[in-house]
């Protein structure tokens, strides 16, 4: 008779949405997890500031509660710490404490790993402990495993993603209903899709953290968030979708990392993408990642990007992998942030990018407007492609669009700066790239 193997014990720090979802997955799926591992995965201790009021799944059995994370990372029976606090202050202390106590770590912390992942991985490797972070990007999509293992034999040339479900929900609702951004945002906040302070989502910073991690995995380059140009969706309006549709496009907040002969161009910003492309069909709070490889060509990954249970599945899966490595022997791991600047993959300024652009204007109508704008474009050697004007009820706030042929972004920016000084404009021009590879 084969003896039952001893359980691997988990300490969970943070009982918000992700922590609660993780506990639910571990409790409801405990039998299947044990069958897949060959031994139980047991939650031994949980921690949060309000732990006394938290209702835990009954299937977890007896679980120690504490409001002090130090008790979790130093607990002699805990093998793995699940850091599900978020942010960069307490979470960093929790991970530091876990490593100091030689506890393996599973984290869902995109911000901390994007900013400090290189140093954390180096310390974890030196300490001989396991570190896993699948849930830090696109919770319901195992994209880390894809890039590190599934297609690791390929040479990635470009990666495009919709990595923020809140922004994607807002944009697709605006597109379908013609509602203003702030109205949809307020609705998203009522539904719990958006935070009371939505800036991390709608200004692109949440997506930038995620792209920094994926770019490191995809290109073997040490990427930090400041390497990535970021622009949010605040200025997108329903009229932009009307004009985009006239051009056979839609608008999404696109995370892009592409290899050029000189280096990597990295950006997070709203862009026009073709309506017939697969990524244009990503609706609501879903995420997607489109990877282009030198040999394997295109692969596409789609799923829930957030939510307690999809992200909880990612955390639970990481806990299973780390537990398996603890029990059966840890393979030597290479940090995804291990590389220095490699030259061909070094980040470049996004201003060197070359593509077509969509320029949207709101003006007090008068003679000579098109001539004035075309003159500025000509000064920057930018060729005008088309002028579009949908019917408008007023001449005092008249919208129209100019599209220009592929040109370098620095030229478009200089033109927009000059245009912004023209007295007939109601607001500065909105310039959006028309993604050439999507």
CATH architecture title of the largest domain? 2-Layer Sandwich
Residue share in β-strands: 15-25%
Oligomer: single chain
What can be said about the biggest beta sheet?
A: 7 strands, mixed
Contiguous helical run count: 14
CATH superfamily of the largest domain: Dihydrodipicolinate Reductase, domain 2
Q: What is the helix content?
A: 25-40%
Shape: elongated
Our count of domains comes out at 3
**Ends distance:** 58 Å
CATH class of the largest domain: Alpha Beta
CATH topology of the largest domain: Dihydrodipicolinate Reductase, domain 2
* Number of beta-strand segments: 17
Mean pLDDT: 91
Low-pLDDT parts are: none
Determine the structural class based on helices, strands and strand pairing. Answer: alpha/beta
Calculate Rg over CA atoms.
Answer: 24 Å
What does this structure look like?
By secondary structure, this protein is of the alpha/beta class. The protein has three domains: 154 residues, 3-Layer(aba) Sandwich (Rossmann fold); 162 residues, Dihydrodipicolinate Reductase, domain 2 (2-Layer Sandwich); 82 residues, Alpha-Beta Plaits (2-Layer Sandwich). It has 14 helices and 17 strands. The strands form three sheets. Strands 7, 8, 9, 10, 11, 12 and 13 form a seven-stranded mixed beta sheet that branches. Strands 3-2-1-4-5-6 form a six-stranded parallel beta sheet, sandwiched between helices. Helix 4 links the parallel strand 4 and strand 5. Helix 13 runs antiparallel to helix 14. It is elongated and about 85 Å long. The mean pLDDT is 91.
